[in-house]
User: Fold this.
Amino acid sequence: MAMTEHKTTAERGILIDGKQTARRLRQSIAHHVEVLVADHKIMPGLAVVLVGDDPASQVYVASKEKQAVAAGMRSYVHRLPKNTSQDALLELLRKLNKDKKVHGILVQMPLPKQIDTATVLRAIDPAKDVDGLHIENVGRLASGLPGLVPCTPLGCLTLLRSIVPNMSGLHAVVVGRSNLVGKPMAQLLLRENCTVTIAHSRTPQLPHVTRQADILVVAVGKPQLVKADWVKPGAIVLDVGINREQNAEGSRLVGDVDFASVREVAGYITPVPGGVGPMTIACLLGNTVAACCRQNELTVPELR
Ligand code: NAP
Assistant:
């Protein structure tokens, strides 16, 4: 269905409920885990490695652990001290790569200064790289081959598909070109036959560029950067940004999109929190099931 068919005044600013979609996805994952256990005696296992004591990372890791267990998986969390050497981390990854009970490995970012992120990402077995950041999985995505795709863009794609099952020919603008979000998001949209523009900090006349978008994905890390007059009426707006803002009452999370004003113009929009965020961990669990199936030469279930 063409997206223009969705653009009526009455539908403007419809909230995209990431919490509900993520809940449905987790239920579907839990069902497939049950089938793997009952029919094949295989329980998917996710290993998460946390180096140091960054408070935000601790919260993310605890949430990953809790949701993996709730989906019926095995969860292995390795909490290493801040001064862990790169060699010690690589040694742990070698063990996890060999461990048959571990189907997915995620190293929580950011890593302390003494550790080289690229070296660590390369050390993860690509078949277990559930964050989709190993160069082999990056290449697979760019080449249109099956592989593991980074969780946040995968979550965005799942949300988009729930609104426009056929995105072919739509103009998608992705603001941000990080390896974690922007670049893989652009690749996924290209795979859906969108016409894709990638914008970044050096893009001149950014509001003019974003106004061309039928689908606008913003992953920048700048609170409320995108204003109402940056958005084409009726567009689908996905706000990936998570920014903590201090105000008189304390702190609150805001996205990269000025939600209140953009909602008046957009056709669909994700809130922050409760939009893209909840999809990320659900997709991590989905990637773990997919990795587990491939490692055991089983058909990868379609999770939605
Ligand atoms: P990042 O690595 O810092 O990349 C930010 C990108 O935004 C860069 O490509 C940068 O351009 C671009 N940019 C910066 N300022 C800009 C401006 N004024 N105009 C246009 N582009 C600009 O960040 P990230 O890891 O992609 O994360 C982006 C945001 O998403 C952050 O708020 C992060 O917390 C959030 N996030 C959320 C989730 C989730 O689960 N919801 C997951 C990951 C990240 P250059 O390349 O030119 O520097």
